[in-house]
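Quick one - first record:
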Amino acid sequence: MLRYSQNITQGKGLVIIGETNLSEGFGYPLQLTYTNLIICIEGSALLNVNFKNYLLNPNDILVLSEDDVSIVKRISNDFRSFYCLIDKAMAEEVAYHLPNELFLFLHQHPLCKTPELEADLLKMWITQLQYIKKTCTTHGHIILRNHLQNLFLRMAEEMPVAEIKKMHSYSQKEVLCWKFWELVGKYGTEKRNVAFYADQLNITPFYLSQITKNFFNDSPKGLIDRQVILEIKALLKTTDLAIKEIADRLDFKDTSYMARYFKKLTGVTLTEYRK
């Protein structure tokens, strides 16, 4: 039986990669980070995710979040998998340009089957990820983010139309959460008051807080701030706009307020981040 000394929870960084046969977590809930990819290389494994069983075969991708209850129930003697653990900061950047429907789809269907004709492409994607992690420094962060986005966008391409239509039959709380997130995407750069979104949804701020905590594991204010910070980062990285111009574009009353806001939520100054 193959054995790997690397534990799936070991290591530090925005993205942690490695190989494991999952034997360390056999029979126990896996200790996961914010977003997790487990890609079967060979053999098979049976995992129970949120009380549903999923059989992981070669080239299958299991997408897990930190609040998923994931237990390894059975592994074949030759099971081997590649894992990619993505911390919250990087996951937020990766998710920034992804369709909202994808997150709801993956929440309901965490096991993704790679089309047979694309099995070699998936192996190449893993090899490229390993190369990026090992060699890219100056622009490694952006290259890594884009590489991860490409995989998730490919997953979005494979979402069945019938499943997307089924989203309309989800509970009222789920519908409200996704409507809220769509509103944040539309107004987040100019409206940072939770009450505004609650009014748009015809619910109270307290109720909005309850449902986002249950469904997104975050507060409405935290989700709004996340979107604003990602927008600021994008403008700092991809444009030559002066700080004052960014503050004006994002409806901050002045640059000093935006600077304090950014430093409080990221731990670095606007200038440090741009450098």
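second record:
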Amino acid sequence: MDYTELTEQERIRREKMEELRAKGVDPFGSRFDRTTTTQAIRNQYEQYSHDELESMHVEVIIAGRIIRKRDQGKAGFLQLQDRDSNIQVYVRKDAIGDEAFELFLSADLGDIVGIKGLVFRTKTNELTVKASEYTHLTKALRPLPDKFHGLQDVEEARRRRYVDLIVNEESRRIAMLRPRIIREIQKYFDGKGFIEVETPVLHPILGGAAARPFVTHHNTLDMPFYLRIATELPLKRLIVGGLEAVYEIGRLFRNEGMDAKHNPEFTTIEAYLAYSDMEGMMDLVEDAMSTVVYNILGHYEITYGEKQINMAPKWARVHMVDAIKQVTGVDFFQIEDLETATKVAKEHHIKVEKHYGVGHIIQSFFDEYVEDTITQPTFVYGHPIEVSPLAKKNAANPRFTDRFELFIDGREYANAFSELNDPVDQRGRFEDQLKEKELGNDEATEMDVDFVEALEYGMPPAGGLGIGIDRFIMLICNVNNIRDVILFPHMKHKP
């Protein structure tokens, strides 16, 4: 084997791999049956003194990675790390035998080993396993990052998550907290009588949200498909079918920019409830998210960066137009024509695209001037009809819809509305979207004839919601970049 392009450390480790083979030891091991874990040992025996442990004679079998090691003649110590924790192991030559002790001496940081031994306390009172058997399991051919500095390059940490998880306790914490949060979300909706379902990832028609899609091709059908940008339309078909309360937790895909808040694939929950509406969805989102936060943290207060976010129920509710007026002084309840709205937009340095109506300008005002000013959980409702093609018109003012978004610390966390169940109105909204697409809006949805036909069979009045799970996890974990709550985020190629 040509080792010339390897670092000195990598060459030495490969030579050790060959030495193991020469001794009849498989460098990459085989099955090893553990009886416990390092965390279980701490949980069960941390309370006992040196003398108590000596009398108990507790034998354990553990396995994990060597993260620290020091030898002192005919004895030595290593720190063994498994999934949940780590523990010190005391290794004596006369206890494990000459051959096994040679394996210990030649072991490198990062190697994976199995240990059988007794739990005891050292003279410094540290809970330790005294090895009676030492088994080499896997040779690490690359050295771990320096223990004092770890992976300093965050981009490299995200790109090589496997190394990041080895050396970064915070990354392991987030990786294990994420599924707990998702289980709490599932438990909440299951407890409310919702049915968890699965809908297709490949969609023949672009719909359910305003976003640019990933496009692929199915060879057998010889037709294009989109990776789903939302689960909305299939789930609402299930409401038509009589399932009445459904939800799906799954990946969505949007062919758009990447930043601290956006990844091309991300996880959401969408839920739909027959006979509910926008206000019912406000209550549901507030109760669901506050309950999950409390069940995970034991309280409602979240420290996010330098801010304190109070997730206790009774969140603020404000109409989008009132929020804009409060910040800018512009009252879009009084501005109904496009000419006046365009003039006001230019005065406020808002760019007006060719396909814009008054509603688009209102949305742009909110995005530019209001969104970043919101810190505590706030429901912003009353979105213009032009930007809400799947929401019901507001009965009192049909320029707006019964839709809301939840904002916390300047970020959107949820989107929900009274679902549009009028098939004639829905067909007209789809047609308006097609006109926008012709005018250059590449995020406009397409005509979904089958969905309109589904509505013609009759969908009960309903409320629907979507919550961005990645952002919710970021909030709970106090993380400011979405890539740090996704195990394998998408990254640019290294130059």
